[in-house]
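Milestone 3.1: sequence recovery, worked example.
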């Protein structure tokens, strides 16, 4: 340990798929008979252990020495480059740096696979024709005796980890201008918790504007899409015998798309009210329409850090920030420019 801001750490990490996974895919030795059941995708990964000794000065890595090499100088240099980026973003502690490196390598792996899918000619050797898609269902994860074999299904799911949520400015319909400011924050969510949080945040049980009688909102997740709707009604008695009663209805529509690393939602609240509030002569009382619209995007940044970040909030605060009409105005959240 060095004095002041300078310190040294010893990091042991594993290079997980810097080279696209398909480059290591084994050749099928023999055509096997068809087996009934859901289709699966088998990806072979070659793990290369790397041991790094590094020293920092504030947010900068002064030295990055490879104690145990992967056997490939390019991979060693890439590991040091990723380490420098992680330390610069604030992950100075050894365990935090390891988690950051693992998350960034995972992102590189996904990007390489997406690039190969976009350029079919780059895939060598040629793969057999694709089989029909498997029916909808949960992903299948199988761990064999060898740690370099991963078997996954083809249905997209939202993975747990550190997610960054961004909410756009709220557009108020009906001449209302702009409502809540845009904001962003992070939240650490375990696998399987994202769908539950979205169901709660989408106002399954929370009150709707101008709604005394509301049905429960039910969200549908499937094939990478999210859909939901909810409606409310409200009626008020007249304030006097000479006045007329007023009523209002409101509806909420939620649509979006998702995959393992990204979520995009469009949230729309529409309201219509009748009454005498606008004035006018006898018989002149048109319905008044109003509403609010905003967009939410979320991106998985990597694995959850060991220490809570300054921009992390809990589930209750996330519900208010993402899906409240006024946003998280009472929360210490960073606003986007």
């Amino acid at each position: 340990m060095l004095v002041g801001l300078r310190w040294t750490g010893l990091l042991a990490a594993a290079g997980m798929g810097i080279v696209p996974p398909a480059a290591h895919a084994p050749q099928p030795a023999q055509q096997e008979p068809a087996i009934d059941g859901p289709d699966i995708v088998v990806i072979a990964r070659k793990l290369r252990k790397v041991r790094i000794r590094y020293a920092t000065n504030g947010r900068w890595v002064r030295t990055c020495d490879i104690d145990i090499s992967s056997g490939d100088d390019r991979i060693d240099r890439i590991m040091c480059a990723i380490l420098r980026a992680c330390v610069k973003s604030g992950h100075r502690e050894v365990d935090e740096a390891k988690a950051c490196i693992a998350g960034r390598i995972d992102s590189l792996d996904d990007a390489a696979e997406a690039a190969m899918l976009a350029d079919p000619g780059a895939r060598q050797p040629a793969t057999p024709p694709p089989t029909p898609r498997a029916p909808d269902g949960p992903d299948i994860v199988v761990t064999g005796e060898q740690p370099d074999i991963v078997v996954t299904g083809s249905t997209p799911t939202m993975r747990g980890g550190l997610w960054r949520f961004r909410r756009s400015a709220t557009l108020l319909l009906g001449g209302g201008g702009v409502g809540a400011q845009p904001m962003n924050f992070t939240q650490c969510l375990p696998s399987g918790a994202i769908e539950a949080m979205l169901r709660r945040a989408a106002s399954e049980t929370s009150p709707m504007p101008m709604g005394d009688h509301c049905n429960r909102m039910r969200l549908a997740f499937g094939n990478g899409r999210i859909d939901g709707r909810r409606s409310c009604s409200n009626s008020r008695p007249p304030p006097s015998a000479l006045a007329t009663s007023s009523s209002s209805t409101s509806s909420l529509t939620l649509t979006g798309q998702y995959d393992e690393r990204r979520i995009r939602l469009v949230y729309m609240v529409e309201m219509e009210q009748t009454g005498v509030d606008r004035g006018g002569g006898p018989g002149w009382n048109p319905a008044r329409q109003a509403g609010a619209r905003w967009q939410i995007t979320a991106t998985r940044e990597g694995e959850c850090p060991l220490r809570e970040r300054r921009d992390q909030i809990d589930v209750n605060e996330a519900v208010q920030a993402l899906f409240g009409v006024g946003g998280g105005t009472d929360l210490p959240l960073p606003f986007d420019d």
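Confidence is low (pLDDT under 50) at residues 1-35, 38-47, 137-155. The helical segments are 73-88, 94-118, 193-201, 315-323.
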